[in-house]
């Protein structure tokens, strides 16, 4: 956080810097600057103004934002020579937000290299993980683009690579190590991430089938305040962060099955089970494309423990359908309809000793929450996955006492924990065009049921808060400028009654 005078000074420097870049462009690089303003009738920006914006739009309103961007990409994949040589790229995107909590940061700052099908990159980069329509979706479940990108190093395949010479089966994967930094409950902890996806169908086929899995883990670090681990009476001063711990994190092996629960004064497993906070989705998708239309159907099934394995949480997941009208120059161009369910979580019976006898009793998964990493699946106060599961600071219409009662965390400061993770949500997204104006419309309705437990064996009283959020975005060009305006509305449900919007002007060089 910064003082307003310091922020204004940095904004001025940013403008001057990007102006000079524009006058002396580097070969092959692209530049852009943006200026935007945000206002609303409540103290926070509406849900569809701030969600899935990679952490760039502040929660508080009113606010002013200035952004600068510098990027260099690879040569086109259609260039045969480009596929056979080592290529480099980079990107930087600086954001200065001025408001109640002024802040200057980089939402992207990375370098990358590609040789053939393989790519390596290091830094912050905007990404979405999972089979989903990336342009109109309510957000991929585990990695939606809602939070500021986490800095990491990653190696993977740049695109789907044929496993067979005829291209019938193709493969895409990544492997990454990232750094969360420090939160209220945990200091200097890490991210482990990997994914693997297959495509069945030749590139020229009209129909293709997709399937894959993604896996994310919060791990390592140390507690802000050392504590005594129940059951072992061991003083916990740090969590496993060595090579042995990394192997356990990457494989997801059960430490309980290996026969040990504690080691060298640290927590070796989450509840004696696995080291770290594991989560992800198992995805399937079906694509059909002809000359006029492109259809995409997808399903993301959620896992955080063994509930999905025994199918007790199979009702939960993200279900979507997208249709693109490829030949439409005017009118409706794309429609996306999605349904998200996270309310089951394997039922309300928590995992415990009874699961040794009845494996199906692995419920109350408490999505995005964790007893060790109390902030949950959150980075810089924003959910990394679907924005419909939100931390306390984002639930502006719900008081602390309503959902968490007298809970006392291990950390000296109340972490910005996930308080609403049992959700049913429907969303309709439409991209259309009238004359030279592009329109993006989103309407979402969600039923919010809070959560099953609050780090105790006492079942919380059930709640239901219904939330309607609407967005209308309009974008068009005026000479060399791109104008992007949004009007949005939230009813009084989980969030406050709110009408607001944004106006952003972009200039590319």
Report on the architecture of this protein.
This protein is mainly beta and 509 residues long. It has a domain at 112-220 and 276-350 and 360-435 and 443-464. 9% of the residues lie in helices and 45% in strands. It has helices at 4-23, 47-50, 80-83, 243-251, 255-258, 400-404; strands at 30-40, 63-72, 86-99, 103-115, 118-124, 152-157, 161-162, 169-181, 186-187, 189-200, 207-219, 222-223, 227-229, 234-236, 238-239, 262-263, 266-267, 277-289, 293-303, 317-325, 331-341, 378-379, 382-383, 390-391, 418-420, 423-434, 437-448, 465-478, 481-490, 498-508. The strands form 6 sheets. It has an 18-stranded antiparallel beta barrel. The chain is globular. It starts with a helix and ends with a strand. The relative contact order is 0.13. Mean pLDDT is 85; it is low at 1-25, 261-266 and 353-357.
Observed structural traits:
509 residues; mainly beta; 6 helices; 9% helix; disordered N terminus; signal; Wzi_sf; Capsule assembly protein Wzi
> Quick one: biggest sheet?
18 strands, antiparallel, barrel
Count of extended strands: 30
Low-confidence blocks of residues? 1-25, 261-266, 353-357
Shape: globular
Global mean pLDDT: 85
**Which quaternary structure do these chains form?**
single chain
Number of helical segments with 4 or more residues: 6
Q: What fraction of residues sit in β-strands?
A: 35-45%
Structural class of the secondary structure composition? mainly beta
Helix content: under 10%
Radius of gyration: 23 Å
Measured distance between first and last alpha carbons: 30 Å
